[in-house]
Amino acid sequence: MSPKLKEALEIYQINSPVNEHELVFCNKDRNPLDPDNLVKRDFQSALRMAGLRKIRFHDLRHTAAALMIAVNESPELVKRQLGHSSIEVTFDVYGHLFPSSMDNLVGGLDRLYEESRAG
Predict the structure, then answer these.
(1) Residue 28 CB partners (closer than 8 Å, separation 6+)
(2) Spatial separation of the C-alpha atoms in residues 45 and 25, rounded to whole Å
(3) Separation CA 31–CA 43 (nearest Å)
(4) What count of other Cβ atoms lies within 10 Å of the Cβ of residue 63?
(5) Nearest CA among 59, 95, 67 for reference residue 87
């Protein structure tokens, strides 16, 4: 969890009603959310209230993976964060999002060339 997300959740929890479970997210009775209703009632309702389009709950996992890849996180860390059994699983599902080796090679050579001209 990023430090900024941790801080935002702590602030949210401080400003939320106290509950015996010390939950950040709870139902109106301040009890844990019911997993059977979480997606249908709570998640979809939250999307509507935020003015966002309807998505599957599982899409959040794909978004997290895509964001990790977009910030050039290592494939191994992406694999571990997603709990994949092997790097092959990660590449089978998300391989198209990783920059190709050729793109990295060409980009790296361009950077070296520009640095040599600037020096």
Answers:
(1) none
(2) 14
(3) 16
(4) 11
(5) 95
User: In what helix (H) or strand (E) does residue 44 lie, and over which residues does it extend?
Assistant: helix 44-49
76 vs 79: CA distance, rounded Å: 5
Print pLDDT tens along the chain (119 aa).
Answer: 889 999 998 898 888 777 788 887 788 888 888 888 888 888 998 999 999 999 999 999 999 999 999 998 999 999 999 999 999 999 999 999 987 766 777 888 888 989 998 87
Torsion, Cα 3 17 47 60, to 10 degrees, reads: 40
CB 17, CB 5: distance < 8 Å: no
Residue-wise DSSP of 40-83: IIIIHHHHHHTTPPP--TTHHHHHHHHHHHHTT--HHHHHHHHT
| Residue in the structure block whose two tokens are 């109106």 | 28
Beta-carbon contacts of residue 82 (< 8 Å; ≥ 6 apart): 61, 64, 65, 90
d(CA 47, CA 44): 5
Residue ranges covered by each domain of the chain: 1-57, 58-119
